[in-house]
Design goal:
159 residues; alpha+beta; 2,3-Dihydroxybiphenyl 1,2-Dioxygenase, domain 1; eight-stranded mixed beta sheet; 8 strands
């Protein structure tokens, strides 16, 4: 059974850990100086946060984490059926984990990963070059982050 994944960039890790621990009703299952992760069963999600200098704040990327190679092959097949370029990263180290993964971007530049985690790592790891995903909306040189259009400020009246 796959698990939804979401990675959020934060500005203050300690405050964000306290917030999400309260929201989820449990402390993170993994905590590092620049990273925390919750592996929740209700809702079934791998929710991660990190603080990195110069990185995007907010949703960095989303994905599907699988439990075995057969499930990974099925998800990889669906990535190819989606009709967008697929970046097959293969074996990699990312977010203090060793994984097998591929990436795809939706038509608006939202980056998705499909991955099978097969071990832990003592280092955060690197991000791939997302240029092959060929999205006009992807942020250049950013980890997993689409460029978000700048909207005009909205005036909000009192309720």
């Amino acid at each position: 059974m796959s698990r939804f994944h979401m990675h959020v960039g934060v500005s203050d890790l300690d405050k964000s850990i306290a917030f999400y621990a309260g929201l989820f009703g449990t402390p993170p299952s993994v905590t590092k100086p620049d990273y925390a992760k919750w592996m929740l069963d209700d809702p079934r999600i791998n929710f991660a946060i990190s603080v990195r200098e110069g990185a995007h704040r907010g949703i960095e990327h989303v994905g599907l984490q699988v439990e075995d190679e057969a499930e990974l092959a099925a998800v990889y097949g669906r990535l190819k059926d989606a009709g967008a370029p697929v970046l097959e990263e293969g074996a990699t180290t990312c977010c203090y984990a060793k994984s097998e993964k591929s990436w795809i971007a939706d038509p608006d530049g939202v980056v998705w990963e499909a991955f099978l985690t097969n071990g832990e790592s003592t280092v955060y790891g690197d991000s791939p070059d997302f240029a092959p995903l060929a999205s006009d909306n992807a942020a250049e040189g950013a980890c997993c982050v689409p460029t978000m259009p700048q909207a005009a400020p909205v005036k909000v009246g009192c309720c």
